[in-house]
Every structure is written in structure tokens, then in C-alpha cells.
Specification:
The protein is α/β, with parallel strands linked by helices and about 210 residues long. Helix content is about 40%, strand content about 20%. It folds into two domains: about 35 residues, no CATH class; about 170 residues, Rossmann fold (3-Layer(aba) Sandwich). The chain has seven helices and nine strands. Strands 1, 2, 3, 4, 5, 6 and 7 form a seven-stranded mixed beta sheet that branches. Strands 8-9 form a two-stranded antiparallel sheet. The chain binds flavin mononucleotide (FMN). The site of flavin mononucleotide has 23 residues, from helix 2, strand 4, strand 6, strand 8 and helix 6.
Length: about 210
């Protein structure tokens, strides 16, 4: 068979297509690996019997929804006490006008609050300094009552404390739902031998809500 040498031009063409294909393939796989199943995040409001000016905003950041359910439980306690409460997503709140107090919550991932919550604090830092503000974190490691666990928990919100001075802070045990994770996170979590579990203690959460209401 008569083999024709590949011209430089054709070689570059073939190499270009191959490289383009590889880049597209890899970025496509990367996109799929980090694509999360759809999770509906709670937003709600209740009208209390306080004057219009007494309004509490609960904002939160969540990936899999469990922090939103904690925010909802806190809101229900405040609503039962007759308060006006809005529960909103951190990424959707751009102004604190009309609110008298703010409760900020975030899920913890890789030792940090989610960027949406931290970005909210950064963006509203000046206004938050004028308003009573409390914060809560929802997480699954370092749940113990020993010094090491307390220190590790405190590290989760150390960057937040550099921006604001909350009047109260809580750390709540959270929930793991593998079906709600993207492929990459699921692999990480499985490698860490974690499984589905819901450690949220609703009595503790509601008790804290009553405490901060006062
Ligand atoms: C990828 C990943 C990383 C996590 N990293 C931490 C962590 O560093 N510390 C911790 O205490 N919990 C960690 N968790 C547990 C979550 O904080 C916990 O599942 C929480 O309830 C999730 O909240 P969400 O359902 O609102 O997203 C992690 C969970 C996942 C899926």
C-alpha cells in the first residue's frame, strides 16, 4: 500500500481537532461531575402581630436543603411568638432595609461557610453593624462538647467574626443526603465513609430560637 506522508498543514488540523475534542470532553465531564441534582430551597414569610417596623430577616445558604429546614424551624418559633419573619436565600438579598434584626445561617463545607453566606456578610457588613445579628451553622463534623471539637467549630465561622460581631451563635448538627450531592461531592463523602444521616435536633434548634427571640 502506498502511504502518503501527512502534510504539516493536515497534521496541525488533526492535532487541533484532537486537542479540541479532549478539552470539550474533559470540561463536559467536569461539568457533569459538579452538577447537583435539583434541590428546592425553602423561602417563606409570616406576618406577626408586632408593628410593621419589627421585622426579622432569616437568610441562609444551603446546598442540599437541610439548612433551609433549620431556618424554617427557627422562623416558625418566631412566628408563633408573634413576630414578622422573612426567610430568604443569601444570594437573593441585596438590602436589609425594613428589617430590625438579622439571623444568618449557613451549611458548612470543607471547613467553611458557603460562599453565598460569606459574600452576603461582606456585602452587608456596614448595615449588619447597625442591626442585632445572630448566626448559626449547620454541619456534621466536630459535634462533640470537648475543647478540640469546640475549637474546630469556631474555625468554621472565624472569617465571619472578622467581619461582624454577632450577638449569639449556634452550631447545629446537620444532615447528609447522598442523593442530593453532585457526583464529585458524593465520591468525596463516600471516600470519607460517611452515609445518609439526619442528626438535626429539632428541640435544640427550637430552644435556641426561643432564646434569641428574647
Ligand atoms: C462535600 C461536603 C463537605 C462537607 N464538609 C463539612 C465540613 O468541613 N465540616 C462539617 O462539619 N460538615 C461538613 N459537611 C456536612 C454538611 O455541613 C452537612 O451535611 C449539612 O447539613 C449540609 O447542609 P445543607 O443540606 O444545607 O447543604 C460537608 C458535607 C458535604 C456534602
Amino acid at each position: 500500500m502506498n502511504k502518503q506522508p501527512v502534510s504539516r498543514r493536515n497534521f496541525l488540523k488533526i492535532a487541533g481537532f484532537a486537542l479540541g475534542g479532549m478539552v470539550l470532553g474533559c470540561s463536559g465531564l467536569g461539568f457533569l461531575a459538579t452538577r447537583q441534582p435539583e434541590v428546592e430551597l425553602i423561602q417563606m414569610q409570616c406576618k406577626g402581630d408586632t408593628p410593621e417596623t419589627e421585622k426579622t430577616l432569616i437568610i441562609y445558604a444551603s446546598k442540599c436543603g437541610s439548612t433551609g429546614e433549620v431556618a424554617e424551624a427557627i422562623a416558625e418559633v418566631l412566628c408563633d411568638l408573634g413576630m414578622d419573619v422573612d426567610v430568604k436565600l443569601a444570594e437573593e438579598v441585596t438590602s436589609l432595609d425594613g428589617y430590625n434584626r438579622v439571623i444568618i445561617g449557613s451549611a458548612v463545607r470543607m471547613g467553611n461557610w458557603l460562599p453565598a453566606a460569606t459574600n452576603f456578610v461582606k456585602a452587608q457588613q456596614t448595615q449588619l453593624a447597625q442591626l442585632p445579628t445572630v448566626i448559626f451553622s449547620v454541619h456534621l463534623s466536630n459535634l462533640g462538647d470537648d475543647e478540640a471539637a469546640r475549637e474546630a467549630r469556631a474555625a468554621y465561622t472565624a472569617p465571619v467574626h472578622e467581619l461582624i460581631t454577632p450577638q449569639a451563635e449556634a452550631f447545629f448538627a446537620g444532615k447528609m443526603d447522598l442523593a442530593r450531592l453532585d457526583f464529585l461531592s458524593r465520591m468525596i463523602i463516600k471516600a470519607m465513609k460517611s452515609q445518609n444521616e439526619d442528626k438535626r435536633d429539632w428541640d435544640t434548634i427550637r430552644a435556641w430560637a426561643r432564646e434569641i427571640a428574647g
